[in-house]
Write a structure and sequence with these properties.
By secondary structure, the protein is an alpha/beta fold. The protein folds into 3 domains: 119 residues, Rossmann fold; 148 residues, STAS domain (Transcription Regulator spoIIAA); 126 residues, Rossmann fold. The protein contains 16 helices and 15 strands. The two termini are 27 Å apart.
């Protein structure tokens, strides 16, 4: 049996890979940091190593491990797969002398990973090729799970860990979920996958059934839920405003925008043209297709410390708020008072994240989004605006934004949303 060693400081990511590898007939071990990794490489002599690039330097960084591994003829030839939040070309080239065969950026595209494992280990992997779009995000301490086209079992495994990750990131004490199903017609053959979907959502969130809503117009799904006594408290609805009404009733803040959001997402998800392009949806982790009260600044530094962030807003107060917020974690922020200034800067600079105001006097946020799309520039965009009109927000989402934050803003909210968008293991 082929043996794979996973070295990663994220308990969730380690467990995800361990489960996937063992379920496909491999022997899998995990190491919790660099020191543990060096010891297990020497003792286990694995056939393959999957290792995070961003290991804690105090417990041996990635190059400490690579150099130690290269010293011994018993371990020098072990192939390595590196995973990272992001790497530039120079950093990738530095890995070449250490038998690094592949570099993946998180979130890992699972089908591509399996293809690489098959090539390196000669072990076949089964991959569910069912077309499916899945996404999970948090607004108002409610976890929104969007699923379109179909239920893919590999993606449901990813979804399980993504939900756990979001709950930990936002420190959600009482999980509330809305599962939005669109562009899917279920039949009796889908019952096993429906069962897996519900088990995934309930077990990963540990939400009480009365705090879960399923938004769908599919009659078979409604009958399926009605016929299962264990799901009696899960409400199936066809209107998101109604679904949000109960879940938001216990939340004291931003109720007006919560009501607006009901219209926004309901229209976007359930009433979209069946032929809409996938680019108008936020797709989760496949190649083939709320307040964080105790957020650690060290955690944010690990994610955002080396990033370049752009703040495009004509409001000087907002510019200073973003700059001051990210100074705490050592992140460079470039400010632009108009969309044209930002677009001109893109000729020479590249940014990892953009905070973008929609309403500016000359070149507004919509024009910026249009130019980015036309140029094929793919970068995370978080819109900042006091505008909450339904048509405005739908238009922004369709143009590729990652998230929408309503002014006035708070520093913790900016950091929290940055972590959600950029610290993606799944």
């Amino acid at each position: 049996m082929k043996h794979v060693l996973v070295i990663d400081e994220s308990p969730l990511f380690r467990e995800y890979l361990r489960v996937k590898l063992t379920s496909n007939g491999l022997d899998a071990s995990v190491a919790v940091n660099g020191l543990d990794g060096i010891a297990k490489i020497k003792n286990l002599i694995p056939d393959l190593i999957i290792m995070d690039y961003h290991l804690n330097k105090e417990r041996q960084n990635v190059f400490d491990i690579l150099k130690e591994k290269k010293k011994s003829p018993m371990t020098a030839k072990i192939p390595i797969i590196i995973v990272a939040q992001r790497l530039d070309q120079k950093e990738i080239l530095e890995l070449v002398p250490y038998n690094v065969k592949k570099v993946f950026t998180k979130p890992i595209k699972i089908d591509t990973l399996f293809t690489t494992l098959t090539s390196l280990l000669g072990v076949p992997f089964e991959v569910d090729e069912t077309p499916s779009i899945m996404e999970a995000h948090v607004n108002d301490d409610i976890i929104f799970v969007e699923i379109a086209q179909g239920l893919n079992r590999d993606k449901l495994d990813l979804l399980r860990f993504k939900i756990i990750e979001l709950i930990e990131l936002y420190e959600i004490r009482i999980p509330k979920l809305i599962v939005m199903l669109s562009d899917i017609t279920f039949t009796f053959t889908d019952v096993p996958n429906l069962q897996k979907l519900l088990e995934t959502v309930l077990q990963s969130s540990r939400a009480k059934h009365r705090n879960v809503r399923v938004l769908t117009r599919d009659e078979f799904f409604k009958k399926f839920i009605a016929g299962q006594k264990e799901y009696a408290d899960i409400e199936v609805v066809s209107n998101l405003e109604y679904a949000l009404d109960g879940l938001l009733s216990e939340l004291s803040q931003n109720m007006e925008f919560g009501e607006k959001k009901a219209e926004i997402i309901g229209d976007k998800v359930l009433q979209a043209d069946q032929k809409s392009s996938q680019s108008e949806s936020m797709q989760l982790r496949f190649d083939a297709e709320s307040k964080n009260r105790h957020m650690s600044l060290e955690d944010v530094k690990d994610v955002a410390g080396n990033l370049k962030i752009a703040a495009v807003d004509d409001d000087f107060v907002i510019q200073e708020l973003i700059k001051t917020t990210f100074q705490k974690v050592g992140t460079a922020v470039s400010v632009f008072s108009d969309g044209s200034e930002y677009l001109a800067a893109l000729q020479k600079e590249k940014f990892d994240l953009v905070f973008l105001d929609l309403m500016m006097p000359h070149t507004d946020g919509f024009e910026v989004l249009k130019v980015l799309r036309n140029r094929g520039i793919d970068q995370p965009v978080i819109v900042l605006s006091a505008v909450t009109q339904r048509d405005t927000v739908i238009k922004a989402f369709q143009m590729g934004i990652k998230s929408y934050m309503v002014k006035p803003l708070k520093p913790d909210d900016l950091l929290k949303k940055t972590m959600e968008i950029l610290r993606v293991n799944f």
